[in-house]
Write a structure and sequence with these properties.
Helix 8 crosses helix 13. The protein is of the alpha/beta class. Strand 4, helix 12 and strand 5 form a beta-alpha-beta unit. The protein is elongated. It is 58% helix and 9% strand. It has 14 helices and five strands. It has two domains: 72 residues, Orthogonal Bundle (Arc Repressor Mutant, subunit A); 164 residues, Glucose-6-phosphate isomerase like protein, domain 1 (Rossmann fold), CATH 3.40.50.
């Protein structure tokens, strides 16, 4: 995880340490020229407090802290998104402000989620999907829509797949599942009661599972064998899943694109066959 993302997420900070962290984030472009004494003066803190913050971030010295920051500054577009996504939508915002804030928040969520998932996890998930006798997708509310999108992708690639959002149907299917099948569970919070019940049942039946949840110590991820994570900074007053939905869809798109490229000729042929107007589908 990058240093900036860690600064956004770290919880165990004193008010002064949080003030230093926010100053650094808001003045990231200037940090290469600010020494520890100057930073202490600008944040009404002390060099000792700054060093303590560095240690909490897993960095030994302020010099190393500045070096890591300078490396991240090179990715200017991402830093711009990170800075502009910090402001929530407010009651009297103009339409232009709403467009900018929602767009930057979604972009930030995608970028953060990219850094949360290692290549090894994608490789494991692809291997599990290839050997599964059937892939079962589970989700509730907005997460069901994400799961449904993934199920359609699986069908297009020739995998037997179903998708459930009804508690009774989910539990019947989970209880009847055998180890040869694969369960894919989508829950942003990772604490959705129905999805936890499914995860528990699949675990009892020794069914392999893949989860898509927020980056947190959540119950669904603890119960599943393979875990994908998305940014966990959804607004408290969100209209259902917003940036989290976009980020999860992006991770799923990465997964299926990587799956296709693992045997491109075979899967390209399946895509051609499953496309309604296959004669007009330009696959090269």
């Amino acid at each position: 995880m990058g240093l900036l993302m860690e600064m956004f997420r770290i919880k165990d900070l004193t008010p002064v340490e949080r003030q230093i962290s926010e100053y650094v984030i808001n003045h990231i472009d200037e940090m290469s020229n600010i020494g520890i004494v100057e930073l202490a003066s600008k944040t009404y803190s002390s060099p000792t407090t700054i060093k303590r913050l560095c240690n909490k971030l897993g960095i030994e010295s302020y010099i190393d802290f500045r070096v890591q920051l300078s490396k991240e500054v090179e990715n200017y577009n991402k830093l711009t998104i990170l800075k502009n996504s910090r402001e929530p939508v407010r009651k009297h915002d103009s339409l232009a402000q709403i467009i900018e804030k929602v767009s930057y928040t979604s972009a930030k969520s995608i970028l953060d989620s990219k850094d949360l998932n290692k290549e090894e996890v994608f490789i494991t998930a692809i291997e599990q999907m290839k050997v599964a006798e059937q892939i079962d997708f589970y989700g509730i509310g907005p997460s069901f829509l994400v799961a449904k999108d993934a199920m359609i992708k699986a069908l297009r690639l020739g995998f037997p797949a179903v998708c459930f959002d009804n508690h009774v149907e989910m539990m019947i299917n989970a209880r009847m599942s055998k180890p040869g099948r694969l369960g894919i569970l989508v829950s942003y919070t990772g604490e959705t009661t129905d999805i936890i019940s499914v995860a528990q049942t699949l675990k009892i039946n020794n069914v392999p599972t893949i989860s898509f949840t927020s980056y947190s110590n959540n119950t669904v991820a603890q119960l599943c064998g393979t875990n994908f994570y998305v940014d966990a900074s959804e607004s408290f007053n969100r209209l259902g899943g917003m940036s989290s939905r976009i980020a999860t869809l992006n991770v799923i798109d990465i997964l299926f694109t990587a799956l296709i490229n693992s045997d491109f000729d075979e899967y390209a042929d399946r895509l051609m066959k499953s496309f309604v107007n296959s004669g007009h589908f330009p696959i090269k």
